[in-house]
UniProtKB/TrEMBL annotation:
Top-level taxon: Bacteria
Organism: Tuwongella immobilis
Keywords annotated in UniProt: Oxidoreductase
Gene Ontology molecular-function annotations: oxidoreductase activity, acting on the aldehyde or oxo group of donors, NAD or NADP as acceptor
Protein name as catalogued: Aldehyde dehydrogenase domain-containing protein
Pfam families attached to this UniProt entry: Aldedh
Length: 499
């Protein structure tokens, strides 16, 4: 299906749409760069400052609104997402090149987050706790932080923003949302749905643009919380820029060098399928994608043969074609970056088992497509086995005893997602206890998290659980509230109250 007329990109600031910024850029389809998805204005510094001031000023009334009424906006949003699932998936497939079925799954993931948020609307927002003094009542109550900046990546342009916008707005914060410059159309559609669902126009601002827009948001002391998903380099910059702001919280999720461990007792077919899904789904462009397979030596030959043969058969092509397993890389720079890592692996001594490179599928000859690169390399410190690649590029490393596999899995600066394929309870338990990761999977690929589970990593992969369940503690703080019902003052710790 052809894409309809290009979208008119607009900023949503201070309760109105603005279609002029400091310039504009075109969002193009990565499967056919001639196809223009839309034209988007770049927010000017003045527009950004106005958005920040609006978010600050809108906070008190949004915070005072009944939490249940805020939650009900999410109920309406859920129905709008259900109504528009197909068109959202279509737009996403066109704009970022993910196969349509994956885009549908992502819209559903976003819907699940919205349903989850609606469902938590009537849950308790605090606790009654005991006091040392019988006449004292003590309470803990969660209150919103204030203004939250949400800076999100292109690869999950619908679900990941919803992971962050959902709890932030439910709890009573106001939000400045900057979608990736590679997925502005999906970001804008999402904001349109929020407005249609009845969220007050000032509680959410949409700012298009690249790093400079994000930087201005991060530099503002009005912004109390920065929720970021993206590269380790940008995440670190945000943390550095936030260092002097004592009540600023940064929750960042910053990719991984994820691994699938294939134990000696693994079922071969399950191991091959899990490895293919982990490494090549979304063309390896998930932060949870695997780029390392840690394989028991006794299975190595049989596994490798079947893995390479299966990778050979993967259908790469037009994301709108239902047969497509994976689509293009997001842009030429991303494709070239993967090609550099492919070459690097070879120069670092890898044995190339399947050479990846640019291809021109017949159903989309002009996109940024790459075939899978698979190699074997037993130098775990090689850069290609240490750095995030974000593409269809995977290295196989072998091990003899399980402790070696654990050392290999732990032997990078990242710690996001990990899978183990095994039939053994002991193996599974040892991996869980000894490996450092945020999300672990047994007899599954290391992708495909569900929204009600915490999502996030350790080490260079980030701090806390910036996404999905777990975010509540980031976008609220807990106040302690203590009330004395006695006739006179009595203090804790036996402190004298004589004056
Ligand atoms: C990402 O990898 O960038 O767990 C997000 C998954 C998805 C989210 C991925 N639910 O694969």
């Amino acid at each position: 299906m052809m894409h309809p007329a290009p979208m008119i990109g607009r900023l949503w600031i201070a309760g109105e749409w603005q279609d002029i910024g400091s310039g504009e850029w075109l969002s193009r389809s990565p499967s056919d760069p001639e196809t223009i998805i839309g034209r988007f204005p770049i927010a000017t510094p003045e527009q950004i400052d106005r958005a920040i001031a609006t978010a600050r000023d809108a906070f008190p009334s949004w915070r005072r609104q009944s939490r249940i009424l805020r939650a009900e906006c999410f109920d309406r949003l859920a129905r709008l997402i259900e109504r528009d699932t197909d068109s959202l998936a279509q737009l996403m497939a066109m704009e970022i090149g993910k196969p349509l079925s994956e885009c549908r799954a992502e819209v559903i993931e976003g819907l699940h987050m919205v349903q989850y948020v609606f469902g938590t609307g009537r849950e308790p927002i605090g606790q009654i706790v005991a006091s040392e003094i019988p006449e004292k009542d003590a309470f803990v109550r969660r209150v919103p932080k204030g203004v939250v900046a949400v800076i999100t990546p292109w690869n999950f342009p619908f679900a990941v923003p919803l992971w962050m916008l959902g709890p932030s707005l439910l709890e009573g914060n106001t939000v400045l949302f900057k979608p990736s410059e590679s997925s502005p159309a999906v970001g804008q559609r999402l904001v349109e749905l929020f407005l249609e669902a009845g969220f007050p126009g000032e509680v959410l601002q949409l700012l298009h643009g690249a790093d400079a827009v994000g930087e201005r948001l991060v530099q503002s002391p009005v912004v109390q919380v920065v929720l970021f998903t993206g590269s380790a380099a940008v995440g670190r910059t945000i943390m550095q820029q936030s260092a002097g702001m004592s009540d600023r919280i940064v929750a960042a999720e910053m990719g991984g060098k994820n691994a699938v461990i294939i134990a000696a007792d693994a079922q071969l077919e399950m191991a091959v399928n899990a490895a293919i899904l982990s490494a090549f789904k979304t063309a390896g462009q998930r932060c949870v994608s695997a780029s390392r397979l840690i394989v028991a030596e006794s299975l190595l030959a049989r596994f490798t043969e079947r893995f390479v043969a299966t990778a050979d058969r993967l259908r790469i092509g037009n994301p709108l074609n239902p047969q497509t397993f994976y689509g293009p890389l997001i842009h030429a720079a991303a494709r070239d970056n993967v090609l550099r890592y492919n070459a690097l692996a070879e120069s670092e001594g890898a044995e190339i088992l399947r050479r990846g490179g640019p291809i021109q599928p017949s159903d989309a000859p002009h996109g940024y497509f790459l075939s899978p690169q698979i190699y074997r390399l037993d130098s775990p410190k090689a850069r290609c086995l240490q750095e995030e690649v974000f593409g269809p590029h995977v290295g196989i490393v072998s091990f003899r005893e399980l402790p070696e596999a654990i050392d290999l899995a732990n032997g990078t600066d990242y710690g996001l997602s990990l899978a183990v394929i095994t039939e053994s309870y002991r193996t599974m338990r040892l991996i869980r206890e000894e490996c450092r990761f945020g999300m672990g999977y047994v007899n599954l690929p290391c992708i495909g998290a569900e929204v009600h589970l915490p999502f996030g990593g350790v080490k260079r992969s980030g701090n806390g659980h910036p996404s999905a369940a777990g975010l509540v503690d980031t976008v609220t703080h807990r106040i302690a509230w203590t009330v004395n019902h006695g006739e006179s003052i009595r203090m804790a710790q036996g402190l004298t109250a004589e004056v």
